[in-house]
Amino acid sequence: ICVDRHVKTWRKNKVAIYWEGEPGDVRTLSYSTLYEEVNKFASILKNLGVTKGDRVALYLPMIPELPIFMLACARIGAIHTVVFSGFSAQALADRINDIGAKLLVTADGGFRKGKIIPLKEIADDAVALSPSMEKTIVVRRTGKPVAMKQSRDFWLQDLLEEAVAFVEPVPVESNHPLYILYTSGTTGKPKGIVHSTG
């Protein structure tokens, strides 16, 4: 709903997100474009079996797909956790297992200080330690070749071809969890803080 309210007003053509990547690539998303993307991403999640109350882990670099997936989860009542893309496979698996996430969104890699971080490779190691994990969506960011497991791993671009343009927002109570945010774990086991939708 937080994107819907702007597409019916004068704000629809205003910029919602300015983004610049480390290599210098840029993207600008208006409120109407953001609305379209959130609906398509919500459609993808639904097509992969994600429903209200399911947990989704987001292990992505700082790219527009991250907030779009966050909003898409909220649209269908799914609960997301954002995991810092600098964390290890074990740290990612710990968070996946703690919430019982069934779907992971990651990228083929990410750029950090001129180097490519092999996010898909790290994600694969984490998934191997996560019994609840069923499917992985992979965003093409670096173009680096990665291993894809059939029937488990899906390229975002391929999934977008079957996505519909509108997904009805799922109503939830104000105390329904919106996301779970974890402490860094530097002084002990990471602790998850639940943030409600209200």
Q: How would you portray this structure in words?
A:
The protein has 198 residues and is an alpha/beta fold. It contains 6 helices and 11 strands. The strands form 4 sheets. Strands 4-3-5-8-9 form a 5-stranded parallel β-sheet, with helices on both faces. A two-stranded antiparallel ribbon has the order 1-2. A two-stranded antiparallel sheet has the order 6-7. Helix 2 (31-47) crosses helix 3 and helix 4 (89-99) crosses helix 5. The radius of gyration is 16 Å and the shape is globular.
Topology:
Layout: H1 4-7, E1 15-20, E2 26-30, H2 31-47, E3 55-58, H3 65-76, E4 79-82, H4 89-99, E5 103-107, E6 110-112, E7 115-117, H5 119-127, E8 135-139, E9 153-155, H6 156-160, E10 177-182, E11 192-196
Parallel strand pairs: 3-4, 3-5, 5-8, 8-9
Antiparallel strand pairs: 1-2, 6-7, 10-11
